[in-house]
Write a structure and sequence with these properties.
The protein is mainly beta. Helix content is 0%, strand content 47%. It contains no helices and seven strands.
């Protein structure tokens, strides 16, 4: 299944393929990187709180202009996730699940 940014999952789901129609090129520190909804990003420590299950990795749920993305982040330290907007300047790496054929 492909990640749906209109109806994102209730919790991050690493079994979803990225929606490549949402891919944009972003400036991250000193390099450019392509990011799409459904990708996973590693974030600089201290930019956002540590996720209990995923650590400093977050699933992208929206791609915006001006070097901003939406990530699924726990708001209560538990299983309640919602979108948090993050500057791409806080991204260390991007991981993409390759679509299964």
């Amino acid at each position: 299944m492909i990640f749906n940014n209109i109806y994102p999952p209730d919790i991050p789901d690493s079994d979803l393929d990225p929606d490549l129609t949402t891919e944009k090129v972003y400036e991250c520190m000193n390099y450019s990187i392509k990011i799409a909804c459904g990708d996973w990003v590693d974030v600089h420590e201290g930019a956002i709180g540590l996720d209990a299950m995923w650590g400093m990795s977050y699933q992208v749920c929206n791609t915006y202009e001006n070097n901003l993305i939406g990530i699924l982040a726990s708001q209560d330290g538990g299983d309640t996730y919602s979108e948090t907007v993050l500057s791409t300047q806080n991204i260390l790496n991007n991981y993409r699940r390759m679509p299964q054929e």
